[in-house]
Amino acid sequence: MARTMSNRQGDATRIRLIKTAEKLFAAQGVDAVSVRAVTAAAGQGPAAVHYHFGSKEDLLSAVLLDVGERVKQEISARVDTLAASERRPDLEDVVRALTDPYLELLLNQRVRGIRWIKIVVQVSREARPAVTATGQDELSLRLRDQVRRALPDTPSERIDQRWPIAVMSFLQSLGRVDDWAVGAARQSREELVAFYEDLVAFVVGGAERMLT
């Protein structure tokens, strides 16, 4: 009984630290937030992050996975479907394999989803252990293989250089979706979907222009 209660308290503390770090990382920047700032904001002792995660980098990995694991799984499943099909995908198929799970995230967890996207934008182009630990690098390579299938005449070097520009443009824009709300604190659900569809069209068109 005592051990069960202790485990529950430990899980609750871990969740509190993850959510607190998520808020601070999104608002202030990952590198600007100290471990001490996270523990203080979470109402925990100064050693709490080290006790529950080991390091700030491990905490960042936990933050990325807490919301992002479902997104990663959904993207992975879509990439698997594209890879298993004998039909060569077009570029929009590949873009939507990446982007549709982000829309689903924001439709289900708007506030946390936007925070998470802002963190991803900060760290996704950095070679840091927290990103590697999420498995995101391997998934990015698999997705890029489908870009190559969609654009067989485009040199691989060009795809490697320019496809990340399309991805980052999507993430940066989606992470600011509510900054462009007109006359409201944030866009409605219908406006979010319309914004997303416009953004996908923009990303597909821009990627085609860069890569073909």
UniProtKB/TrEMBL annotation:
PROSITE patterns: HTH_TETR_1, HTH_TETR_2. Pfam families: TetR_C_30, TetR_N. Keywords: DNA-binding, Transcription, Transcription regulation. It comes from the Bacteria. Residues 11-71 form the HTH tetR-type domain. Residues 34-53 bind DNA. InterPro entries: DNA-bd_HTH_TetR-type_CS (IPR023772), Homeodomain-like_sf (IPR009057), HTH-type_TetR-like_transc_reg (IPR050109), HTH_TetR (IPR001647), PsrA_TetR_C (IPR041586), Tet_transcr_reg_TetR-rel_C_sf (IPR036271). The keyword DNA-binding applies. PANTHER family: HTH-TYPE TRANSCRIPTIONAL REGULATOR BETI (PTHR30055:SF234), HTH-TYPE TRANSCRIPTIONAL REGULATOR RUTR (PTHR30055). This is TetR/AcrR family transcriptional regulator.
